[in-house]
TrEMBL record:
PROSITE patterns: ACT (PS51671), CHORISMATE_MUT_2 (PS51168), PREPHENATE_DEHYDR_3 (PS51171)
Keyword hit for Plastid: no
Protein name in UniProt: Bifunctional chorismate mutase/prephenate dehydratase
Catalysed conversion reaction: prephenate + H(+) = 3-phenylpyruvate + CO2 + H2O; chorismate = prephenate
Compartments, record wording: Cytoplasm
Length: 400
């Protein structure tokens, strides 16, 4: 009887798994159908020129779904998380569609993109994530440094360059800012990529056996707290995370490891010995996409404009420039200063604002800034890629 019960229970488990598999397939079909309908929504906004996002409607949708979920025994946080992801996907797909209509000459099924490192690097992952909505095929071009990326784009050897510009843990990537001073390229896009640093190894081992860690400079800085706790560890710097992972795979030794993402490590048959080793739990890097020609941002899409300027050496010069933005109602979301090469103690200011360069307020601001600065240049206007989730009142989430 006991043996029969075991067989019966096993069959029941197999039946359950088959039913779950069937339900997963049904969910994927429904997700695809929902995504197709959201593109129809985007098409309806072309003639009416309505914004892609309607935060009030998104909030009302989430509240309704949370209530319906509770009636079905589903946790409010679970429902919120699932549908915020679905809404984000919907918004990004609509934006990509509208950008294709606005820039028909530069949207093609196949794109070539240069990035730092090789397959598995964070720039590689960001490139694939960005173009997953925009291209059917990606021709990859790994590079050893940021200057090479820009040179490939400027020479027309690749269509785009993906460059990390800042990180929530280690801050701005100064080398990229310095290179932007001297390029004729335009920023045409951005993407924020979650950075989940792990300690990866090629063979089964333990943390106490690790005496050498390969890493790019940025991951090393972002994981300094974890590394400070490790005794007798030697750091070997590499040009990119991909180079570091390739090195560890090649060595196949129990005493070496690399700092990188678990997703990227799988491309090199590496496994995570330690996960979540970054200084901050929420660690993200922002990447910019550069191209030879600028893009036009559809009116329905939130836009960001990046420009640089230099002021004279006089008191209050920077404040005067910032007041221009305030008077025009333009929100500044980033301000970075970098020294001007060959001109000691003078600085170039980089500014990101939430505005479309073609809008009247932004045009007026640029005109006024041109009059009060020694130099000004717009580096690009591009769609805002980061989608902040619609807020949900705590009363809707609270368990009754």
């Amino acid at each position: 009887m006991e043996e029969g019960n075991i067989v019966s229970n096993q069959l029941d488990l197999n039946d359950i798994r088959k039913e779950i598999t069937a339900l997963d397939q049904s969910l994927l079909t429904l997700f695809a159908k929902r995504r197709a309908l959201t593109l129809e929504v985007a098409k309806s906004k072309v003639e009416n020129v309505r914004p892609v996002r309607d935060l009030q409607r998104e909030q009302e949708l989430l509240i309704r779904l949370i209530k319906q979920g509770k009636e079905l025994g589903l946790d409010a946080h679970y429902v919120t998380s699932v549908f915020q992801t679905i809404i984000e996907d919907s918004v990004l797909n609509q934006q990509a569609y509208l950008q294709t209509l606005t820039n028909p000459n530069i949207q093609v099924p196949r794109v070539s993109v240069a990035f730092l490192g090789d397959k598995g690097s964070y720039s590689y992952l960001a490139s694939h994530r960005y173009f997953s909505r925009r291209a059917e095929e990606i021709i990859e071009q790994g590079c050893q440094n940021f200057a090479d990326i820009m040179q490939l784009v400027e020479a027309g050897h690749v269509d785009y360059g993906m460059l990390p510009i800042e990180n929530t843990s280690s801050g701005s990537i100064n080398e990229v800012y310095d290179l932007l001073q001297h390029t004729n390229l335009s920023i045409v896009g951005e993407i924020t990529q979650p950075i989940e640093h792990c300690l990866l190894t090629a063979v089964n081992t333990s943390l106490d056996k690790i005496d050498t860690i390969y890493a790019h400079g940025q991951p090393f800085t972002q994981c300094s707290n974890f590394l400070d706790k490790q005794a007798n560890i030697r750091i070997e710097y590499c040009d990119s995370t991909a180079d570091a992972m390739a090195k560890v795979y090649e060595l196949q030794q129990e005493n070496v490891a690399v700092i990188g993402s678990e997703e990227g490590g799988k491309l090199y048959q590496l496994h995570a010995l330690e996960k979540s080793i970054a200084n901050q739990d929420e660690n993200h890097s922002r990447f910019i996409l550069v191209a030879r020609k600028p893009v036009e941002v559809a009116q329905q899409i939130p836009a960001k404009t990046t420009f640089i300027f230099a002021t004279g050496q006089k008191p209050g010069a920077l404040v005067e420039c910032l007041l221009v933005l305030k008077e025009k109602g333009i929100n500044m979301c980033k301000l970075e200063s970098r020294p001007i090469q060959g001109r000691p103690w003078e600085e170039m200011f980089y500014i990101d604002v939430e505005a479309n360069v073609k809008h009247l307020a932004m045009q007026e601001a640029i005109t006024l800034l041109t009059e009060s600065t020694n130099f000004i240049k717009v580096l690009g206007c591009y769609p805002v890629e980061h989608i902040s989730p619609a807020s949900v009142p705590s009363s809707a989430i609270a368990t009754e």
